[in-house]
Amino acid sequence: MSGALAKALGLRGDWKNVLGMNARNARVAAENPPGAIRLVDSKLDTKKVLEEAGVPVPPTLSVLQDRRDLRDFDLESLPDSWVLKPDRGRQGSGILVANGQEDGEWKSPSGHAIGRGDVEERLRLILEGEFSSEEIEHDRAFFETLIVTHPTLARLVPSGLPDLRLICYRQEILLGMIRLPTKQSDGKANLHQGAIGALVDLDSGRVEKAMFGHERVEEHPDTQVRLVGVEVPAWEEVIDATRSCFKATNLGFLGVDAVIDEERGPLVLEINARPGLEIQNVAGIGLLNLLSGNKR
Amino acid sequence: MVLIKTHFVLRSRSPRRAIVVSIFALAVLTLFLVMARPATAQGAYGSNQTVIGGEEPLLVSYEGGESLEVLTNVDTGAGYAAIDETVARDDLGIDVDNPPTTVTIQSAIGDEERPLVPVQIQIAGQTLNVQATVSDRANLTTKMNLGSRDLDGFLVDVSERQLTEPDSPIVESYVASLLEFPPPPPNPALLLAALPLAAVIVVALRSLVGLRTFGTFAPVLLAVAFVQSGLLAGLLVFSVMMLAGLVLEPLLRPLHLPRVARLGVLLAVVAAVLIGASSVVSDPGVATTWTSAFPVVITAIFIERFWELWEQEGFKEASKVAALSLLVAVIASPLLVSYPVRWVSQQAPVALPAAGAILSLLIGRYRGLRLTELVRFRRAAEGKS
Q: Are residues B148 and B201 in the same domain?
């Protein structure tokens, strides 16, 4: 049915397998129980169930529940580098990153100074729900260990954190890609903002092909490092961690976001109950065929 | 019960057929609604008399001077016609302090002597010479009143409004009246009935075309505001309010207000701009319509969403979504006042919400690709390379 419109308009290509938003929303509603969606909307709750299921996640340094926690919080207890996140932030908003300390002030990856006042201000805003979905007026804030990208992946990009995205449906991993920040994406791994999407072969863990904007590329436009053929480190562990996410979250249709830390190896950052569909462009194939159980 | 049945019918049909049917139905309906013209509106009453509603526009002039279009109230309980003092004196140039004759009117507050002036009116294509009393109607949107003395040959249906134009017994196009300033005030019952139909447009643009708007039904509420204020005036006021909000927002940012407080401030600014704009307009009727109709809260939310999107996805995307939201409102507003919608809402008021529900249901069942996804996923359709 997906191809009906394309066919009516006389478009060429394999449109009948392309999964659109309408069909995705229907699948999400059918496969993901409301309770499970609520769970993964909270990063902290997700981390808890993933940890219990033995899935590696970034270590939490401290959690702030309310203003009293903020008053009692000792900023001195923080290490030189950390990440501050809202529990229910909208699309990565509200995140503050410190990757070094100098003269009693932290430094952001772009070199800006982060004073104690800046951290307190950000904490207050997070607790007030400034970065969270509209329905809530209160949120939790938490500090995490800063992830240091595995050198194999770090050398591919000018800056920023490359991350893995795996799309899963009914206990099966369908497609996996690695998202690589570019200068255009300003260090962010979001394809809409100009990051590169590189399809990873599920069996070998090697990059098959890459897409920048809507164009196919073989190498990273900023670093000129060849992407096709690069092997993602610890791929077997990534697959295992992803498989453990199905049962832990009780979601039938999900996107798993993971990173590869230099020391700790694969870590699951968050689970998405409404997985993005951009991976179809990166793969050059539609998801519908895969959803019906046909292997690639 | 009806819903369950419809659901069942859709399930048993082939999905492709449902898509084709719903798109086709929507296209035909939209075309029909906007293009259609009343052919036999008058014939429906089975009489040779011209039918007028409880409120009609007419042209009035004095001693062959320039004619002025005013809205008149039609009151079969009154005898003499009446005209507003200010209109008579300032617009028509009648010397109301030295009238040719006066007449004693009996009313609830006792007998009152009023000036009586001869004016010429054109209503529903007929020209009449009318003796009108002069009274103060400054606070009314209808600057004249027609009574039984002058209604010979007319059939009055008080359940209707604005069935005619001064030079014609039928209204050529309500849609065109949107471009007038000020537009004829719409019928609230009609708006209520037509609202679900306008919502269908939003549903279709989302699920079939894939356009993004601020808030799901905010554009529809904006369309209602446009109907009440007139399209051009509405767009102007809305733009000014948006602009004020956009200028203000960066000044608010450094204060680090929580979102609720920021929305509160935006709301106050938008309201202030609106009050300012309506005080510039001399017509009290228009000013009242604006202040009561304009969705201040929705405008404030538009501004807030605009900034949020600008921050997250850049100015280009935010402007695109803003433009699309406005476009939906502009498409929906003529539909709300189009003749067929008015006609159906008067003949069978429940038909429009019912049609809205069924169409939304049909469109909601569509699981295929949205039109814009044919561009978005063009790489995915390439197949294995």
A: no
